[in-house]
Amino acid sequence: MKKDFFWGASTAVNQVEGGWDADGKGISVIDVLAQTTGHREETRGVLEGHYYSSHQAVDFYHHFEEDIALMAEMGLNSYRMSIAWTRIYPTGLEAEPNEAGLAFYDKVFDTLQKHGIEPIVTISHYEPPFELALQGGWSKRRMIDLYLKYCQTIFERYKDKVRYWITFNEINCMLVPFGIMTAGGVFSPIRSEENTLQLRLQCLHHQFVASAKAVLLAKSINSNFQMGCMIASMLNYPLTPNQEDVRLADKENLIKNMFCSDVMIRGNYPYYIKEYFAENQIELLTEEGDADILSQGTVDFYSCSYYMSSCVGVDPDAKAVSGNLLAGLSNPYLVESEFGWQIDPKGMEIFLHRVYDRYQLPIMIVENGLGAKDELVDGQIHDDYRIAYLREHIKTLKNVSNQGVDVIGYLPWSAIDLMALSTGTIDKRYGFIYVDVDSDGNGSFKRYRKDSFY
């Protein structure tokens, strides 16, 4: 691996930070997701009698110095994190930013610098202001300018502290129904007649334009900024050699894995999306000049999450599986985690080769990990299963690098235990650092080093 390779780990602010109303922070779309069985319930505001796990999460807000010191002890040289939009602009509509919020991230970045850890910052990781969501969020074009106001503030404030920026987390999740929540900014339940592909793709177009404009803005503030996209890998294999299965897998991989990065890297809507739009009766509202903006505001690097793979096919009786935004068919050659996610380190090699062959840009894996029910026994957590998962993926990573793919970073999910996005619980843990808190927010919040930490 290269000497300046980013060996790190990742988190998202809405899953670790807490301090949801501290020092002037406003309410985000995640702050109104209440605990229920299965997926969280979206409530119109913060209501009495409901529990919202994002409100304290694992309390990074009050433990960041300790947590960053642990990251340094673990040997990390990089940390992929996000900024809470609502710490900077509580409703998104303010003319001036919240100084206390800006000062908090100054302290975080200064602490990272003290420990020699490079921040890689996601600008929007599923948590736009709730007030903007109530007004239509990303379905409204005005969201672009509000996002850019936020971008300008953090670019100027942290221009000497942050080099690497990711405009939107897993932007391609907008292609699946779950995206209505993770896109954060259209207030609509996941299972709802309002949650249409048409709506999500209109939101996605606005995010494409916002990302491109943010890239251009960033370069005007600091030409050394490195701007990236972030894609949730949804690798699909054909279930059989049946030509219908093979063609279906090709189409799924193009639409779900390549469409968004094609726009953000190549700077235009690809040829194949016309058929997809026609099949789904999609008609986008665009403005004159959008095409020029997309072509000018392309990103410098590619980043992605990679957890698992799946199969697709036309057999209606094939066994189904699900995982990180990926629902498909079971692969008989793979084993599954205790939560049913198919473990496929070889798939990461296949995926990275496809991406690099297509774009020839540096690649960061900014999420990869195993969720499991870790047990704290006598102050120790023996997570050999996580070590085995990571070992095989790191072997793959080294192979891919030796084969000529320009991988510049590996930042697994996650640095520290965190609240799950879809359920808001902590039953399924990912971190190298264990936090003594349960899904109801009870516990000492003491940090423990897992075996995988060492």
UniProtKB/TrEMBL annotation:
<keyword id="KW-0326">Glycosidase</keyword>
<comment type="similarity">
    <text>Belongs to the glycosyl hydrolase 1 family.</text>
</comment>
<protein>
    <submittedName>
        <fullName>Beta-glucosidase</fullName>
    </submittedName>
</protein>
<dbReference type="Pfam" id="PF00232">
    <property type="entry name" value="Glyco_hydro_1"/>
</dbReference>
<dbReference type="InterPro" id="IPR001360">
    <property type="entry name" value="Glyco_hydro_1"/>
</dbReference>
<dbReference type="GO" id="GO:0005829">
    <property type="term" value="C:cytosol"/>
</dbReference>
<dbReference type="GO" id="GO:0016052">
    <property type="term" value="P:carbohydrate catabolic process"/>
</dbReference>
<keyword id="KW-0378">Hydrolase</keyword>
<dbReference type="GO" id="GO:0008422">
    <property type="term" value="F:beta-glucosidase activity"/>
</dbReference>
<dbReference type="InterPro" id="IPR017853">
    <property type="entry name" value="GH"/>
</dbReference>
